[in-house]
Amino acid sequence: MNEKVVINDVTIDAINFQEETVERDGRELKKVRFDFKVTAEGYHDITTLLYKNDFMVKMPAKSLEFPAVIHRYSTSITNLYEAGAVGDFKLELLEKS
Q1: Which InterPro entries does the protein's record reference (predicted)?
Q2: What is the pTM of this model?
């Protein structure tokens, strides 16, 4: 399932989107995971965003909004500085408790 996910006002075209609720310390927290493509041109902006690890996640289509941190993150490539390069990113965000 594909979705538009907005992280700190940056819109990401999410692929393979999944949403669930997990229990932590007696609280139910939202968790979302998805994949997305990152081009060489967008690499710096996306990695700078992710290094903050303090997010407001919004999903306008689902009327969903919550503060989150990275739970899991991976990428198919660590250097997207070559023109035309595209990396596959996987991101899992967990609501702050």
Answers
A1: DUF3219, YkvR-like_sf
A2: 0.91
For residue 90, list its beta bridge partners.
35, 74
**For residue 42, what are its two tokens?**
């967008």
- Homologous superfamily (CATH) for 3-95: YkvR-like (2.40.30.80)
Q: For the CA atoms of 80, 70, 51, 68, what is the dihedral angle to 10 degrees?
A: 130
| CA dist 95 → 44, 86, 87 (Å) | 25, 28, 26
- Model confidence over 35-83: pLDDT tens digits? 999 998 898 899 999 999 999 999 988 899 999 999 999 998 867 778 8
- Pairwise CA distance, residues 42 & 50, whole Å: 12
List the chain domain ranges: 3-95
What span, in angstroms and rounded, lies between the C-alpha atoms of 66 and 55?
Answer: 8
Residue the block writes with tokens 């596959």: 88
